[in-house]
Amino acid sequence: MSNIHVTTSINGDPVEFVCAPDEPLLDVLRNRLGLTGVKEGCGTGDCGACSVLVDGRLVCSCLVLGVEAEGAEISTVEGMAEAETLHPLQQAFIDHAALQCGVCTPGILVAAKALLAKNPDPTDEEVRFWLAGNLCRCTGYDKIVRAVQDAAAQMRSA
Amino acid sequence: MQYAKPKTVAEAARLLKDEAGVTRILAGGTDVLVQMKAGMVEPALVVDIKGLPGIREIVAEAGGYRIGACVAGAELGEHAGLKALWPGVVEGAELIGSTQVQGRCTQAGNLCNASPAADSVPALVAAGAVARVIGPDGVRDVAVSDVPVGPGKTSLKKGEFIASIFVPARPDRASDAYLRFIPRTEMDIAVASAAVSLELDGVGMVTAARVALGAVAPTVRLVEAAGAALVGTRLDEAALDALSAACSAACAPIDDKRGTIEFRTHIAGVLAKRAARIAYTRAGGQA
User: Fold this and answer.
1) Which residues of B touch A70 (CB under 8 A)?
2) Which of A20, B248, B259, B276 has fewest C-beta within 10 Å?
C-alpha cells in the first residue's frame, strides 16, 4: 500500500500532501495538515463534526478519501474568518452562547454557512432539517437555531 | 488497498476484471467507506468511478432522463426537469441520510448496497427504471428491479458496475410518489415504504399503475396485483382498499428493533394508499 501524492486547494490555498489510499480526508486534514478545527465524532457519517465543503458541497470528511481531494476545492472552518474578523455566524454563536463543549461547533458553522449560501432566509424548520446531520449533545439546538437566524438576518442586511 | 481512478469505462472494466481480490466501486462512498471502516469489507482494489465521462451528469434522453451513477442526492433535488417528471424518484433519493450524506450518496450506490430498506429503490422500481451495467463483456441494460437479489447481494457479476440509471418518458397526466415510515422525523432507515407510479386518462381514470414496497421483504418488491387494483378506477375507497390489501399480502418482512412483522405488513398498505393519493393529485387527478 504505497502513499499517493495529492494536489488540492484548501481554503483557497494550493496544498500538496501524500496519504495512504484508504486514509479519510478527515485524518489528512487533522494529522497531516494540522487543520484540527475538523473534528472526529463518529467517523461513520452520522454526527457531522467533520463537515467540510468539497467543491462547494457539504460532506462529512470522514466519508471522503484523502485521495479524492485531488483537483478539488476544500473549505474548512479555518477558512471562515477573515484575518481577525470572525464570520457573522462565528460571532453569532458567541453572542448567543450557541455552544458548550464546542466539539460540534466547527461542523455546524461550516454546515450553516452552506445553508445560508443556498437559502439566505430559512425558516427555523429549514435550519433544523439542514442541520439534522450535525449532532450536538450539549445545547439542545435552540441557541444554535437562534444564532443561525441572527447571522442570516445580519448577512441579509449587509 | 490500491486506489484507482480510471478515465474510461474500458479501463475501469479492465481494472475490475484483472483484480483477483475483493474489489469495491467508489461513487459517493457513504456505504463503502463505512463498511471498510467497520472491517466488514477489506478490498484489495477500490475503483473510483467519478472520473468516467458523463458519470456525474443528468442527461435528457428519449423523453426521460439518464442519471449518471455518481450524481449525488442533492444534485437530483436541484434538477427541475427530473423533479417535474419523476418527483417520487427524486423524493426517495432525497430521504437518504443527512445534508452531508446527500452531498455524496448516489442512487446507483443505494441500489448496489442492496438494503431491503434502500429509500431510492422503490420509486425507481415503480418507475420501471433501467440500470446500464458495464462489465468485461461490454454493456447491458438491466431492470432496476432485477439488480438486488437479497440483503447486501446483487445480480451484478464480477467486474460489472452500474454506469447510469435511466428513467423513461411519461404521458402528460402521470406522476409518482414515495413515502416511508420512520419513528423519527429525519435521518433514519425505513421501517416500511411504498412507491406508486400512475398514469391517468383525460377524465382521471387510472390507465397504468406500478407499486413497489421497501423494507418488507429481502428485496424491494414490485407488487403487480397492487398496481392492477388501481387500473380502471378513479382511486375510490374500494380501489385504495384493494391496493392496501394487495400490498399487505405481498409483505414478507422480518421482526427487528425497528418494527414487527405485523406492523410492517399493515403500514406498507397504509403507505401505499397515501402515496397513491399523492401521485394521483400530482398527475392532475381530482381526489
Assistant:
1) 5
2) A20
- Looking at the structure, do residues A75 and A110 belong to the same domain, yes or no? no
Instruction: Report the residue count for chain A.
Output: 158
Burial B102-139 (b: 16+ CB within 10 A, else e): bbbbbbbbbbbbbbbbbbbbbbbbbbbbbbbbbbeeee
What is the rounded CA–CA span in Å between residue B45 and residue B24?
Answer: 7
Any idea which residue has 418527483 for its cell?
B87
Which residues of chain A lie closer than 8 angstroms to B101, CB-CB?
A: 45, 60, 63, 133
Beta strands B130-135; B161-167: pairing state: antiparallel
Give pLDDT tens digits for B161-209: 999 999 999 999 999 999 999 998 888 999 999 999 999 999 999 999 9
ipTM for the complex?
Answer: 0.96
Do A95 and A72 share a domain, yes or no? no
Q: Which of B42, B64, B44, B53 is nearest to B12 (CA)?
A: B53
B102 in a domain, yes or no?
A: yes
Residue of A44, A60, A73, A113 for testing the chain B interface, max B β-carbons within 10 Å? A60
The answer to whether the beta carbons of residues B231 and B206 sit under 8 Å apart is: yes
- Enter the C-alpha cell of residue B260: 414487527
B21 touches chain A (CB under 8 A): no
Q: Where in the sequence is the domain holding B227, given as residue range(s)?
A: 174-282
- Phi and psi (nearest 5°) for B262? -60, -45
| Cell, residue B191 | 421501517
Interface touch A63/B29, C-beta < 8 Å: yes
Joined together, the cell numbers standing for residue A4 give 499517493
